[in-house]
Structures are given as C-alpha cells and as structure tokens.
Write a structure and sequence with these properties.
Blueprint lengths: L7 H13 L2 E6 L3 H12 L4 E4 L15 E2 L3 H5 L3 H18 L5 E9 L5 H16 L7 E3 L1 H7 L10 E9 L2 H14 L3 E3 L2 E8 L5 E8 L4 E12 L5 H9 L6 E12 L8 E5 L4 E7 L3 E5 L3 E2 L11 H12 L13 E10 L14 E7 L2 E6 L5 H16 L24 H6 L3 H10 L1 H4 L10 H9 L6 H8 L2 H4 L5 H15 L3 H23 L3 H13 L1
Parallel strand pairs: 1-2, 1-10, 2-7, 4-12, 10-18
Antiparallel strand pairs: 3-6, 4-6, 5-6, 8-9, 9-10, 11-14, 11-15, 11-16, 12-13, 13-14, 17-18
Helix pairs in contact: 2-7, 2-10, 12-14, 14-15, 14-17, 17-18, 18-19
The structure holds flavin-adenine dinucleotide.
Flavin-adenine dinucleotide binds next to helix 2, strand 8 and strand 16.
C-alpha cells in the first residue's frame, strides 16, 4: 500500500498512468458514493481510477447535515430496512472503520403534547436503540424541568418534556477525502478537475471508457476501462442521457439549506431535533464553536451543479429555530449558509420530495456501464459494495467486498483526544504536525480561520488533493461557512503560503484570491434574492460580471 497521498504531483502521475493503461473499473464522480466505490473496488484487488469534474465532495457530499444516522423520521415512513441498515453502518463507522472521523452527538427531542406523544416517540426510539446495538447511550426521558436545564435556550411554553437520544456526526467533505486517500493507498488513481463529457464505445456498443476534459491542463483525455461506474449524484439523468441518447427522469433533486451560527447564540448542551409540518429540523453542535441549523426540503429545477440558497430559505430556518427559543437568533448572527441537492430517486405519483425514499438504485443502461444514485451519506459503503458487485459480474471477478473490515486511513488514533488537529485528522495529524515542526510560520493559527493552523492549509494541498483556495477553505477546512467573512481574510493569508506547493506565481495567486472572493460574493447575492430563480440569476450575474 502507498501512503495514500493526494497532491498535484500524484494527480499528474495518475493522469499519465490513465492515458497509458486500461483499468478494470473507472469511477465517474468523486462524491462519497464515488470515493466509496473506488475504495471498495481497489481493496478487492481491481485496478481503479476515479475522475471528478470539480473537487472531491464538491457536490452534495460537502453540503449535507453531516449526520451518520439511522434517520429517525424514516421510522415514521415505515422504511424499517433502510433505518436498520443505516444504524448498522453507524455502528461500523463509529467502532471500527472511522472512529477518528465519526463522533456521537446528543439530541434533545422536545415533546409538545401531553399524553400520546411520549409513548409514541419513546417506542420509536426504543426500536432505534435496539437495532443500533449497544455502542451509544440509550434514549432517556426528561421531565419539563430537566429538559429546560439541558436546554435553557428553549422557551418554557415550547415543550412539555423531552426525550434525549444519540446519533453520530462527521465532517462530510473531509470524510470523503479520507475515503479517497484510503482508496489511493490501495492503488486507486484519483484525478479531480476531470469531467466526463462522453462515453467511449467499441464496435458492439459496449462502453469501454470515457472521454474527459482535464480542466487543469485544458486538454481532452481518453480513459479506457473494462467497466465504468457513474456515481454523479444529481447529474445521473444527464449522464445516462449522454450514454443512451434518451431523455431520463429517474431523479427528483430536492434542495436542502443549512445555516451556521455561533454556539453562544443558543445556550444548550445538546443538539435539538424537532418535527416540522413536512420533515424535521435539527440544531446540530458543529465543532466546539457553532450550531448547524437545518434544513429545508424543496423541489429544485435549477442548474444541478450549483444550488444556491435564497432569502426565503434563510427566513424559514430562522423562523423554525426561533419558534422555540427564548432569545431569537438574529440574521446578523449568521456566519455561513450552504445549499445542497438530494439525489432522490423518483417514485411514480409521489409529488412531495420529503416523502421520497432514501433508498439507492442501480442502473445498467449499457454493457460495460453501471450507474448508482440515491441513498444517504451514512450508507455510502453499502452503495459502493452494491455498485462494485454489479461491475464484478460483468468483469467476471469473484472477489468480494472487504470494506466492512477495512478502517480508513488514520483510524488508528483513539477518538478521545481533545487536540483539535487530532480530532480532525486522527492518525494523519502527524502529517500536519510535521509540516508545523519544519516551519514555525505553519504552526501559527490561520488569521480569519478560527481554530485551524496554517499547516492545515498546506497539508490540504500536499496530502489531501486540494487544488485551489475554495478546495482549502470550503472543503478541507470549513472556513467558508464558519468564518463570518466567509473566509475572505483567510484566503489572502493562505494564497502565498500554498503558492509554492501549487506552483503559483504572485500574479496567479492574486487571481485566485479574487476568484475565491467572487464565489462568496455570488453566494451572498443569491442569499439576498427572494426565490430560487432570482437567486440563480443573482449568483450568475456576479460570477459572469
Ligand atoms: C441538505 C442535505 C442534507 C443531507 N444530510 C444527510 C445526513 O445528515 N446524513 C446522510 O446520511 N445523508 C444526508 N444527505 C444525503 C447525502 O448527502 C447524499 O446522499 C450524498 O452526499 C450523495 O453523494 P453522491 O456521491 O452520490 O453525490 P455527490 O456528492 O453529488 O457526488 C457526485 C459527484 O459527481 C461529480 N460529477 C458530476 N458530473 C460529473 C462528470 N460528468 N464527470 C465527473 N464528475 C462528475 C460532481 O462534481 C460531484 O462531486 C443530505 C443531503 C442533503 C442535500
């Protein structure tokens, strides 16, 4: 096994290898599903490459609620198989596969009705805890007084009591990077900034690879593979159309928006889980300094590669949380906003996206090509296994999935550590600390980026596959949603620090800072617009201006 390093040099080597060699499995899409497939296939001994149009997890996989959960609300939808499967994955991730990246999180479920609600919710949580096994504390019933002691932020009349329960959380973008690195350590070639634009076919019509655009080098690539797996989330219909020449409508994208506010704005010990008219609302503790508030669930018919939040999304989320708080969260307290698209599999006759199943689906549109979509972050490993099983039948490979017993890179460090760098990187924290030891400038905190140190920005480039400031500030660190200036100040500090590793001249890094700021300006322009159409137009106007 190599060290699983993703760097500009490793990318260049991977491109050169792919232009030379045919691989067994080519994965298109570097969200959690794609990187999970790359890991599953490479750890079975297959030769594997993955191409991603943008950055690892740049799509939905950096924009989720960041929960590894069974999904309490799916119990009510009677999706028992999905809940059980997700709880099993939660246990595996917490205890064996990624204890350095996945942590328990405590929630308070406020009860609003006397009588029926406590036994009803209690029974659901009993089932949830029973299926989960004994790796997290079981649900506990709280009186009105104990609930308010745990969550003094809540208005006295907003609840009659509560139930406390546990789920788990992770940093979705960083987790995907660690899955990709683990795949690279098993020999997978990982190439970001490479978009599949067409499929290669042989004389029988079988898919034998893809034609891609390398946006870093600005040139086309021809990548040959014995089997291609598309894991492109909400873009699945577009890619299947490209493959088959027929219009597709297998997915119903639904937009989900979250806000980030400082922890001090809501005095509570545990997170909050509330039912809404159609779905659920969470206040989730994020790092030690923030709350993640979300989310919305509305149908999206705009561009699938850049969902934008609008003013109504933000007003809805503030109204939801403020409906139970004694002291409201003010719009001025919002540090960050992000929008993502759920790749929901369409069901005939279901109009409401909140009712659509979170099950995943495999497609075999042509010989040599499998596509997978739907599902949840939590069940990425199962999705990956199913996709590689389908490819293996075509490849005539008998090797079985090994990921159930395969800890991710860095999993050797116990999760009890309170050092923030170890909490973020587990055993790979040594890589960051070595950079900091070699250069005292890198040991210092990054101005404008909360608790991150400068070495983490450089490590993002030298080990974690980041290729620009947005990769570093939005996905390797989460500064773009945590810092109230959305990372604009940090961008100016980071650019010269990472310039040598990126090979950037002074003029180039000035352009990169400008580009980063424009991205944030465009998002903020969208957030001020009243609806999706206006937000999309405002976003594009800034980007094109
Ligand atoms: C608001 C919200 C909250 C959520 N919360 C949770 C949660 O708490 N827990 C949970 O378990 N799940 C959650 N989910 C669901 C979960 O986030 C998704 O199911 C999962 O991230 C989907 O991953 P994916 O890899 O299939 O898709 P994506 O992450 O979208 O990845 C697809 C990738 O394909 C790339 N791509 C597209 N076209 C091409 C091309 N032509 N060539 C190369 N690459 C291409 C894209 O750039 C993208 O990176 C949430 C989803 C949303 C929207």
């Amino acid at each position: 096994m190599s060290e699983g390093v993703l760097s500009p040099a490793a990318r260049a080597d991977a491109v050169a290898r792919l232009e030379r060699e045919e691989v067994d499995v080519l994965v298109v899409g570097g969200g959690i599903t794609g990187v999970g497939i790359a890991l599953d296939a490479s750890s079975r001994g297959l030769s594997v490459a993955l191409i991603e149009a943008d950055d690892l997890a740049a799509g939905t996989s950096s924009r989720s609620s960041k929960l590894i959960h069974g999904g309490l609300r799916y119990l009510e939808m009677l999706e028992f198989r999905l809940v059980r499967e997700a709880l099993r994955e939660r246990r595996l991730l917490l205890t064996r596969l990624a204890p350095h990246l996945v942590r328990p999180v405590e929630f308070l479920f406020p009860l609003k009705h006397r009588g029926w609600e406590r036994p009803y919710i209690g029974a659901g949580l009993l089932l949830y805890d029973t299926w989960a096994g004994r790796h997290l504390p079981r649900a506990r019933h709280l009186s009105h007084r104990s609930a308010l002691a745990a969550a003094p932020a809540l208005r006295h009349d907003s609840l009659v009591g509560a139930v406390q329960f546990h789920d788990a959380q992770e940093d979705d973008a960083l987790f995907a990077v660690y899955v990709a690195r683990t795949a690279a350590a098993h020999g997978a070639s990982i190439v970001t900034r490479a978009r599949a634009v067409d499929f290669l076919r042989n004389e029988t019509g079988r898919v034998v690879g893809v034609r891609a655009e390398d946006s870093l080098a600005g040139r086309p690539l021809e990548l040959r593979a014995r089997h291609t797996i598309a894991a492109v989330g909400v873009v699945t219909d577009k890619l299947l159309e490209l493959a088959t020449g027929r219009a597709q409508s297998s997915l119903r994208p639904s937009k989900g928006v979250h806000l980030i506010v400082p922890r001090s704005s809501i005095p509570m010990r545990s997170g909050l889980f509330m039912r809404t008219e159609k779905s659920v609302f969470h206040a989730i503790p994020w790092r030690s300094d923030y709350w993640l508030l979300g989310d919305t669930d509305t149908e999206w018919d705009g561009e699938v590669d850049r969902p934008v939040a609008n003013r109504s999304d933000i007003e809805y989320l503030l109204a939801k949380v403020n409906s139970v708080l004694a002291r409201p969260v003010e719009p001025s307290q919002i540090h960050g906003v992000f929008a993502g698209l759920r790749p929901l599999v369409a069901a005939d006759g279901t109009a409401d996206t909140t009712r659509l199943s979170r099950e995943h689906r495999l497609f075999s549109p042509l010989p040599g090509l499998t596509a997978i979509a739907g599902g949840k972050y939590t069940t990425y490993r199962v999705m990956a296994r199913d996709a590689v099983d389908a490819a293996s039948v075509d490849l005539g490979s008998m090797a079985r999935s090994a990921t159930e017993r395969l800890p991710l890179l860095g999993a050797e460090t116990p999760s009890e550590s309170s050092d923030p760098i170890r909490l973020r990187h587990g055993g790979c924290a040594e890589e960051v600390l070595q950079l900091a030891e070699a250069d005292p400038v890198l040991a210092a905190p990054l101005p404008g980026a909360g608790r991150y140190i400068a070495a983490e920005a450089v490590h993002a480039v030298t080990h974690q596959g980041a290729l620009d400031l947005d990769d570093i500030l939005s996905r390797r660190t989460r500064t773009s949603i945590e810092a109230s200036d959305r990372g604009r100040a940090a961008a100016a500090v980071i650019a010269p620090l990472v310039a040598p590793a990126m090979g950037w001249s002074e003029a180039r890094y000035a352009e990169e800072i400008e580009r980063y700021r424009r991205l944030r300006d465009a998002e903020e322009a969208g957030e001020a617009a009243p609806d999706d159409a206006a937000a999309g137009a405002a976003y594009r106007a800034v980007m094109d201006g």
